[in-house]
Amino acid sequence: MITVTTIAELRVLLDAHRGNGHSVGFVPTMGYLHDGHASLMRAARVENDVVVTSIFVNPLQFAEDEDLSDYPRDLERDLQVCDEAGADVIFAPTADEMYSRPMSTVVEVPEMAKRWEGASRPTHFAGVATVVAKLFSIVGTCSAYFGEKDFQQLRIITTMVEDLSFPIRVVGCPIRREDDGLAMSSRNIYLEGDQRAAATVLNRALRAAIGAFHNGETDGAVLSQLMASEVTAEPLAALDYAAVVRSDDLTTARTVDDTNRLIIAADVGATRLIDNMGLGSTTPL
Ligand code: PAF
């Protein structure tokens, strides 16, 4: 495994691989890697000749009052996770390498980005789409692997790729969960004491709604209310939203079916948590 820190070096390396007929799998991350990230690299490893993982805490996707400076970082441990998951190349640029001057260009998917996470974090998805577009331009033709935990992010990136005809195949991969159902996230380390147990309320709420759907409930408002009441019953959690949405455009689904998605977000202490499940899902956790 090699670590590359400049755009020019990565381009030369990957162009050479593609020139030799090798396929490239790309896993973009912000580091502080957990098994969710490792599962993306394992998926990329199975399907590609070369696996590239980027580790870059992207300032553009943090609002001024968010946790950019505190965002957890541990490059040494990340490199070990990447190595064990089978990555070949790590792209770990500095912020100056990525943004040598203030960006004049912004990539936006505004209709999809204004909902749900976007309502609470209005500048977030433009920051994500801009850095991902830039990373795609640097990495070039590849298959790119994203976790379904950030379902809205995945839909926005897929839409951007289709709209702008990027030579990228976007692959969504299943959420990895802790044994008690909490979706893996780098931010879970912020959870202190009782907050860690309280955080499982998102998973409980999703499963309650899936259970009700399997018992015949098809009214999206009823399922959303069911999830909301689960979260409200947890004193350490503050609900942001709980909804059933169409999986393609993330608009609210009224009469639901198994193609729809449950999405939920809540703050536990100062930690924002998000989670989701397909209504067709049969897995209890
Ligand atoms: O999901 C993430 O970790 C980030 O949003 C991404 C896609 C790496 C862009 O910075």
Explain the overall architecture.
The structure is a single chain. The chain is an alpha/beta fold. The chain has two domains: 172 residues, Rossmann fold; 91 residues, Pantoate-beta-alanine ligase, C-terminal domain (Pantoate--beta-alanine Ligase, Chain: A,domain 2, 2-Layer Sandwich), CATH 3.30.1300.10. The protein is 39% helix and 19% strand. It is built from eleven helices and nine strands. The chain has a six-stranded parallel β-sheet, with helices on both faces. Strands 7-8-9 form a three-stranded antiparallel β-sheet. Strand 3, helix 3 and strand 4 form a beta-alpha-beta unit. Helix 2 runs parallel beside helix 3, helix 7 crosses helix 8 and helix 10 packs antiparallel against helix 11. The model has no long low-confidence stretch (mean pLDDT 97). The site of pantoate has 10 residues, from strand 2 and helix 7.
